[in-house]
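Q: My labmate handed me this sequence with no annotations at all. I'd like to see what the chain might look like in three dimensions before we decide whether it's worth expressing. Could you predict it?
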Amino acid sequence: METRKSRGHVAVVTGAAHGIGQATAQRLAAEGYLLALCDIDADALDALRTQLGRACLLTHVVDVGDAEAMAQFASDVHRVVPAVDILINNAGVGLVGSMESITLDDWQWVLRTNLWGTIHGCNFFVPPMIRRGHGGHVIQLSSVLGYVGVPGVIGYATSKAAILGMSEALRADLAPHNIHVSVICPGLVATDLVSRGRIRSEVSAEGLGNRLRSMYAARGERPEQVANVIYQTIENPRPIVHVSLEAKSLYRMQRWLPGVGRAFGRTVHLFHK
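A: Here is what I predict for the chain of 273 residues:
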């Protein structure tokens, strides 16, 4: 049902063709938001645009790590509206591997999409929000792995920790402009992040990938659950939002009992043979 808050408001969603991004676009469209969507997967993005119909203002095939591509996407959006109301920096890739197994190319790949994609989104969409002077909301996707140390995900965890820290600083910068900043921290989510990501393992990458996919399917939250949390956060802004009770408990443990949190992290082993 369309709400007064959603009527005519425009939301950008990056990484919109799969997983959390797709579910979020569908939920916001159902709530009356107008959408500008981007993703690197042209076919999936076209299918989503057809499904959403008139709720979708425009779609662009964009690699969020490419500054010129993001600048063009933002320019096209701003030809339609002077500024967006909601920016959801969702696009991300998965990287599994230890310090011994991942390469510099892997580091650059995961940071280019996860961190620089988020920076590009803010760089090109936030200043017009400020200039318009009507406030707004920036939502960034981090992870429980952004604050709990777990073996075997150092590249991915670094990117998500950086997004968490960036969001805290961005919130302070944007408070005078009535622009909210929320960071969403899911735990396991049953998406195709593992299938579409990179696995660098000292053991069989194929076997590890199968185990991870099984674990995510069995224990992961559905993308629709995360999308619901994102929508609720738009309606009632909060600074740090934990999608599951497990994620919230780990955050509190890490904050108030850091020794226990570190000990817990060391018990999670992705690379057991």
